[in-house]
Amino acid sequence: MGHLSAPLSCLLSPGIASLLRRHVLKASHHFSAVSRRRGRGRSDLLSRSRASARTDRASSACGSSADSLWSVYNHTKRHTQDAMPSVSSVSVDPDSIFANNEMSLRDTEVYGFDYDYTLAFYSSHLHTLIFDIARDILISKHRYPEGLRAYEYIPDFAVRGLHYDVQKALLMKIDAFHYIQLGTVYRGLHPVPDEEVVAMYDGCHVPLEIMSDFYGKSSHGQSMKQFMDIFSLPEMSLLSCVNDFFMKHNIDYEPVHLHKDVKEAIRDVHVKGIMYRAVEADIGKYICYGEQSHAVLKKLHEHGKKMFLITNSPFDFVDRGMSYIVGRDWRDLFDVVIVQADKPGFFNDRRKPFRRVTDKGALLWDRIHKLEKGQIYKQGNLYEFLRLTGWRGSKVLYFGDHIYSDLADLTLKHGWRTGAIVPELREEIKIMNTEEYVHTVSWMQALTGLIEQMQVRRDAASQAVVGEWIRERQAMR
Ligand SMILES: Nc1nc2c(ncn2[C@@H]2O[C@H](COP(=O)(O)O)[C@@H](O)[C@H]2O)c(=O)[nH]1
Ligand SMILES: [Mg+2]
């Protein structure tokens, strides 16, 4: 399913865009010249006898309009190739930080961090581990067929952000306008033909009411669930493998039950602490050591910045990981540490109070009047956090990897600055920097310009040519 990770076109540099506009303009001048010449040709035809002129005119006009379009096409293609920007001139640094808004780090007084996939990065072994354990839970606890053990985690099968139709057991990419992207729909481990998708959904549009909610959760019978978490990659892979197994063996099964069972099996891997214990037992295998993590956090600390951590993970797990990544003194750098925060509820639900946890994991019952450095707190809520710390608005910058659970509410409701950690971007940018990508995008934009200009021609021959261009553009996408 490699094509699901299509690079983000919004990162196209303005340089390429203006260059492409120039090609299209040149092409349009050329077209005007061609059509003027063709006009003269047509008037020549009129001087012939009426009967033969009608036939001649019809076939010649068809031929000539198609010819002229292909001539513009070839001309534009040559121009696009000749003026192709060098890859190095348009390449983007994969290690860049992209700012969507202006801000000064000097004015940022408080830095907050999520833990998993923000401070702690995991190796691909973790996804294999989650997949294997959840698959085995399906077999042992939910009595799924033993034959499933033959399936292994498929690393590049899915990307974050895909939707899963729970009733139809289909995994797919849906764009921001709720259109299914044809060519991305998978049943089990195999693509579904476009015509079948269009027939099933009566087109490609998915109405809002059947999409999952803001947090990617499906409720009130909505059938499209979105996977927004990096942790959900093994879940998508497992769903697809089990669907594949059932279909391959012609087993009549209920996709809704399958979705629920896989979700529960995955939840067990987290909630029952199986994953935490496995990672703690072999930390070097699962956690990628961040060479600069300690230096960055120390520098912020030395510059008098306040720092806090809000994670959904339990303390033991975070402590082991942070000691490995940052060092045993990591707690000296953080002013407030909140574990098992239950995000995104943490940002919205005012009812849950903070609770102090000892280093040994015991829960204390005293009321919390201040959040103290050196202590560990569990749960709580953002309103209480703001009241106790006074860390409000744009002086706070919070980093997280989950667009909805970590970042959306903080920006939209509370005015904190947010930094999205999007590890996928590095690979996307590397693809964007390839010669093949630069060439394809350049030609696709030039072709789009041609289509926009020529589609107003209503004669059958022109329409056929424009139709071919549209198909070519579709194939490139
Ligand atoms: N109950 C579930 N927990 C999950 C699932 N996927 C991930 N997780 C756990 O969430 C936290 C994320 O921590 P954060 O530091 O990024 O806030 C981590 O402990 C995971 O184990 C799931 O599907 N169900
Ligand atoms: Mg996280």
UniProtKB/TrEMBL annotation:
Which cofactors is this protein said to need? Mg(2+)
- In the record, what terms sit under GO molecular function? 5'-nucleotidase activity; metal ion binding
**Which positions does UniProt annotate for Mg(2+) binding?**
D114, D401
- Residues reported in the UniProt entry to bind GMP: D116
Cofactor annotation remark: Binds 1 Mg(2+) ion per subunit.
The UniProt keywords, alphabetically, are: Hydrolase, Magnesium, Metal-binding
Which Pfam families does the record cross-reference, listed alphabetically?
5_nucleotid (PF05761)
Biased segments, Basic and acidic residues type: 42-57
* Source lineage: Eukaryota, Metazoa, Chordata, Craniata, Vertebrata
- Family named by the database record: Belongs to the 5'(3')-deoxyribonucleotidase family.
In Swiss-Prot or TrEMBL terms, this protein is called 5'-nucleotidase domain containing 3
Residue ranges of the region described as Disordered: 42-61
Q: Active-site residues? A: D114, D116
